[in-house]
Amino acid sequence: MSVWNVRTEVMQTIEQSMEEILTKYLKPIEENWQPADLLPNAIDPNFFEQVREIQGQSKEMPYDLFSVLIGDTVTEEALPTYETWLMDIKGINKESRNGWAQWVRSWTAEENRHGDALNKYLYLSGRVNMREFETSVQFLISDGFDIGTGSDPYRSFVYTSFQELATNVSHRRVASLSKKTGNHLLAKMCGLVAADEARHANAYKHFVTRIFELDPSEMMLAFEDMMKRKIVMPAHFLRESGMKISELWAHFSDAAQRCMVYTTQDYIDILISLIKEWGIEQISGLNSEAEKARDYLMNLPQRLQRLSERIKVPEKQYEFKWLSV
């Protein structure tokens, strides 16, 4: 049986538990939070007073921190790209109303709220050049992204496990740092987004755990391959008007490092957590190639740790076109 036929069978096996998975890792729509629950209502007599409060609190936030919030929001707004990619994974019937296709649609629906909420907050903040922000969103959707997974479910679920954990860290840190500046509204919003990301990460980690049970050697090789490629965030192609693809990523990454929202150490810590979560050291039944892949993965955190000690983050802040003040 070919590798792709095995992958399809594995996906079909996991799909048999999809109803339980949907219930465990996603929330009923009518019970879930919505952006309107968090932001001022325009029909409220106190609307303008609440907006002035948002604007005052936003101005108190450090430049790098607010820049990272904007970049995170651009990423969240590029959601159509991610749904299209997931629907193309081997073993997912995009025309189905159930199973894997239902997971992708339902996950997308939950994620869509994040960009909606944060976009509206940025608009009300009075601190953002919304045209430049919207241009970056359109660029990111138009440019797409290259994360090295192709249509392979094994590689794709390694990526989503890692990426959901990374976005959880980023939003959680923005929440914590916003709270320290007195911005309790933004802290609450980012905290709710971070909680969603953690729940979604648990789902994708569960998928990988099941694949390790059903096809351990190929799953190990896929994990190794993704880490050799390096997990690239969806915002890797981030750019502003007048820029080429990826020119803005380094500046955004430096800002995230400077304000300690997402760092190289977080990347290493996420890798360590996945190695532990999936019990990489204890997995049995591996072929010789997969055994070598396991050795590589077990040694990788220490190697990355040594490399991270040489990285120097520029102290000078980049002037993002997104920020008007």
What class would the helix/strand composition place it in? mainly alpha
Q: So, the CATH homologous superfamily?
A: Ribonucleotide Reductase, subunit A
Number of helices: 13
Say what the CATH topology is. Ribonucleotide Reductase, subunit A
Q: Low-confidence runs (pLDDT<50, min 5 residues)? A: none
How many strands?
0
Content of β-strand: under 5%
What is the overall pLDDT average? 95
Main sheet characteristics: none
What would a concise description of this structure say?
This protein has 325 residues and is an all-alpha fold.
Sum up the structure in keywords.
single chain; mainly alpha; 325 residues; 0% strand; 67% helix; Ribonucleotide Reductase, subunit A; 13 helices
Sequence-ordered SSE layout with sheet pairings:
Blueprint: H1 3-15, H2 18-25, H3 47-59, H4 63-77, H5 79-87, H6 99-125, H7 130-143, H8 153-180, H9 184-214, H10 216-229, H11 249-258, H12 264-277, H13 288-308
Helix pairs in contact: 2-6, 4-6, 4-7, 4-8, 4-11, 5-6, 6-9, 8-9, 8-10, 8-12, 9-10, 10-13, 12-13
